[in-house]
Specification:
heterodimer, A: alpha/beta, 14 strands, B: flat
């Protein structure tokens, strides 16, 4: 008897719960009404939260003061590593502690849009036209604008003036190859580059006609068209391989630790030149190297080596409590005047066309080199499928570098793996 | 109708059974609990159950991941509620039974004393039980649940909803070629890594402890201190330093040690087989001091009489080791050895810090030295394959729990003697 009673109780309670389950959606409608109420409240107090890059917020201080004045708004600036910000937004956004405006790497725009983290911006053609095409394109996904470019970075060539005089600097990759043959002895090296990574090697591969993703008629990246194993890419890989074959690169330059090896060899004055990015301008100077900066060398077929352009941008979160104001702020902070001020303080090369000829930028050798190289550079594909390219492509280049596979075989294998991974991770989207 | 039946039936509304038994205060407490439960958690249960069944219906209003979490909390809260509800029935029935037998019911004062005396352990452990449920059980249930959804880059809030897909994710691991081949490669290396690296560190630890414990050895303290040093330096610092030492062309191992013996440089970081060897050697070095210390402790406790008796019987030194020392050590430290195996099975630090699971392997989504746990890390952080990673985590847990249970049952340490 008691058993039956107990079950009766349980059954009635469960029935009660199911009754509650039935009215879930209506209830949640009420909830969403509540949350929109709270965002209206936020508009009245007018606050904006901006996530800035580490050590870079000084560059926008003045502009923020002006914007606060003009729009009667309080802006809170928080510094965060810029590559980390999208990551944090995933949790902080829905929790209500996220930013209105934040900064992120341009090649992650596609992934972030797919996840719905970015608000589409309504930016006029006029405003878009002040930025370099490459930089602006990085912010466009599926024909819609999701941010405005703040700074561009691209690889350049650093050379040690004490080892190679300014007049004798080779301007071709073959020239560097010859020079490296001369200079490489014991612990001394000529040109060093991380050609076992697609980020750096693509500069050579694409000069010969290789590419990561082709583009369709509308100019969007096409993940079914992978050009990493076409004839050009193989030719490029072969021209890379000879550096390794001849022992011009130390074998420790391959793999995870490669970048540290490269930096320390150049900082110790043991390498005549390296291919690296503007982020090393300060560190190399601190190491006491008398270096020069120039655009990347030309290839044997007369093409200039290309590079991936990294674009940092200001974007508006979909969780922004104050989206219209945030959008206005993004336009304001990336305009010509504010970009120039920011460049003067932080040294990040701006993406505004007009500033390339501005004396402030033109007089800096490094900024000039970045600007020049940008002409030959291309965007890192921003579609989510790009995530599947890095590891297999690096794997192939590593096996090429260590001489374990010949270029054609390795690149075919890589493309096969990329296709497999795209199918595994991105099919049925 | 008997009192106990009536009291139980009335208890469908919490407290009414107690009222029927004329236990007013207790009845009010139960009624209060019931009312407060529905009042406080009503909305949450409503949203939670709706959320966990549907995982949201509208974008961007519904965030599936949060709904899933709320749903799990709702289930946990319901279970706690049901527990109190059950106590309410049981109490009404018990007291009804007393009335049927014409025995007096406990007075309020007596009930209070009962609660304090017999219920004391439960009152004291209550808060920690509560924390256990939400800090330990909840996260486990959450990752368990994620494995049965399609949560990945294309099905992630706020742009999209997550859906329940049942065992599809598990099926994917074994049916999609690239996942299957990677899974078995990684699993194979994980098992080899666990067995070889752990056995090496355990063997080395025991051997050194026995040797250092010999009577004729001088400076025991110094030797012991030196042998414990690898354990005293923080592991991740050691691993990073080793990563430098093993560097193919600059590392001291190739340049100084091997070159001294006239051996050609070995591709420690660029060849998967050599990387594996390097990892196993490193783990042996990092792991032996702990076993050494524990074994040293055990050796002190083995009575000298045993050895003296064995000497009189004419036992050789190896016979003594085989029949006295080794069984005693194994009996005492078997549980520790097992934890060493399970620890290495999930030893993320050493793999991640040494070379990030590298070198790269063509045709695989994992690197040459990735073990399951570091591969799962890559799937989550690089490919946003959350549900796949959760499914693999479940498989991995089943594996670890299985091995641990099997080993525990085979060891004498846990048998009642």
């Amino acid at each position: 008897m008691i058993r039956f009673k107990k079950y009766l109780g349980l059954i009635s309670f469960t029935a009660l719960l199911f009754a509650l389950v039935a009215c879930g959606p209506q209830e949640s409608d009420g909830d969403s009404g509540d949350s929109s109420d709270s965002s209206e409240n936020a508009e009245e107090t007018k606050e904006l939260t901006v996530w800035a890059d580490i050590d870079k917020s000084a560059g926008i201080e003045a502009a923020i003061a002006v914007f606060e004045e003009e729009h009667d708004v309080e802006i809170e600036v928080i510094e965060k590593a810029y590559a980390q910000q999208v990551e944090d937004l995933r949790l902080d956004g829905p929790a209500g502690t996220g930013p209105d405006v934040f900064t992120m790497p341009g090649d992650q725009i596609g992934t972030a849009v797919t996840e719905g983290l970015l608000k589409e911006l309504d930016v006029s053609e006029d405003v878009q036209s002040i930025y370099t095409d490459v930089a602006m394109n990085s912010q466009i996904y599926d024909g819609k604008v999701y941010g405005l470019p703040k700074a561009v970075e691209t690889n350049v060539l650093f050379y040690n003036k004490d080892l190679v005089s300014e007049d004798e600097v080779p301007t071709t990759l073959d020239g560097w190859y010859e020079l490296s043959l001369e200079l490489t002895e014991g612990e001394n090296y000529g040109l060093l580059a991380l050609f076992d990574q697609i980020y750096y090697a693509n500069g050579v591969l694409s000069g010969y006609g290789g590419y990561v993703f082709g583009k369709d008629a509308d100019g969007n990246f096409d993940p079914t068209d992978i050009g990493l194993n076409n004839e050009g890419a193989i030719e490029g890989a072969e021209s890379i391989q000879k550096f390794y074959d001849e022992g011009l690169f130390p074998s420790g330059l391959v793999g995870e630790q490669g970048i540290n090896v490269l930096d320390s060899l150049f900082s110790e004055g043991k390498a005549a030149a390296v291919i690296s990015g503007p982020w090393n301008l300060g560190p190399y100077e601190e190491a006491g190297i008398n270096y020069g900066v120039m655009k990347l060398p030309e290839l044997a077929n007369g093409e200039n080596m290309s590079a991936f352009v990294g674009v940092k941008s200001y974007n508006v979160s979909t969780y922004a409590k104050n989206p219209e104001l945030a959008e206005e702020f993004v336009e304001f902070i990336t305009n010509e005047e504010n970009s120039k001020t920011r460049y003067e303080i932080t040294g990040e090369v701006p993406a505004v066309k007009a500033l390339a000829e501005d004396p402030v930028v033109a007089e800096s050798e490094a900024a000039q080199a970045v600007a020049q190289q940008s002409q030959f550079s291309e965007l890192t594909p921003s579609i989510p499928e790009m995530n599947e390219v890095w590891t297999p492509a690096d794997a192939a280049l590593q096996t090429i570098a260590t001489g374990k596979a010949d270029p054609e075989e390795a690149l075919n294998q890589a493309v096969e793996t990329i296709e497999g991974q795209i199918e595994a991770n991105h099919a049925g989207q | 109708m008997q009192h106990r039946t009536k009291a139980s039936l009335l208890s469908i509304i919490p407290g009414f059974g107690q009222f029927y038994n004329k236990q007013w205060v207790k009845g009010l407490v139960f009624l209060g609990f019931g009312g407060a439960f529905l009042f406080a958690f009503g909305d949450m249960l409503n949203m939670g159950y709706w959320g966990i069944f549907t995982l949201g219906t509208e974008v961007p209003r519904d965030n599936s991941v949060f709904l899933l979490a709320q749903g799990i909390i709702a289930i946990l809260v319901t279970l706690l509620g049901l527990l109190v509800y059950y106590l309410n029935f049981r109490d009404a029935y018990k007291n009804g039974e007393l009335r049927d037998k014409n025995r007096p019911l406990s007075s309020l004062r007596k009930q209070y004393h009962n609660l304090v005396e017999s219920g004391y352990p439960y009152v004291v452990s209550g808060p920690s039980f509560f924390i256990l449920v939400f800090a330990v059980i909840f996260p486990i249930l959450f990752s368990l649940a994620v494995a049965f959804t399609n949560y990945d880059l294309y099905h992630s809030p706020p742009a999209n909803l997550v859906d329940w897909v049942g065992f599809d994710t598990f099926a994917k691991i074994f049916t999609v070629d690239i996942w299957r081949s990677t899974f078995f490669d990684v699993l194979g290396w994980t098992v080899i890594w666990t067995l070889v690296a752990t056995t090496l560190q355990v063997g080395l630890g025991i051997l050194l402890a026995v040797v250092v414990n010999q009577k004729d050895i001088h400076f025991k303290r110094v030797v012991r201190t030196v042998l414990v040093l690898p354990w005293a330096v923080p592991g991740f610092v050691t691993i990073l330093i080793f990563a430098g030492l093993f560097n193919d062309s600059f590392g001291a191992i190739n340049n100084d040690i091997l070159a001294f013996f006239g051996i050609d440089a070995i591709p420690w970081l660029t060849n998967a087989a050599w990387s594996k060897l390097a990892l196993i050697l490193m783990q042996g070095w990092l792991g032996f001091p702990y076993i050494f210390l524990v074994t040293t402790g055990v050796l002190q406790s083995i009575p000298d009489d045993l050895y003296e008796a064995a000497t009189i019987d004419g036992a050789s030194i190896f016979a003594k080791f085989k029949h006295i020392t080794m069984p005693m050590i194994l009996l005492a430290i078997a549980p520790i050895i097992i934890t060493q195996y399970t620890f290495n099975f999930n030893n993320f630090n050493i793999i991640y810090l040494f070379n990030g699971g590298g070198p790269a392997v063509p045709g695989s989504t994992a690197g040459g030295t990735d073990i399951l746990v570091s591969w799962i890390y890559k799937l989550t952080m690089q490919s946003s394959q959350y549900s796949l990673a959760a499914a693999l985590t479940i498989l991995l847990s089943v594996f670890v729990i299985g091995i641990a249970l099997w080993q525990f049952r085979r060891t004498n340490s846990f048998k009642e003697d």
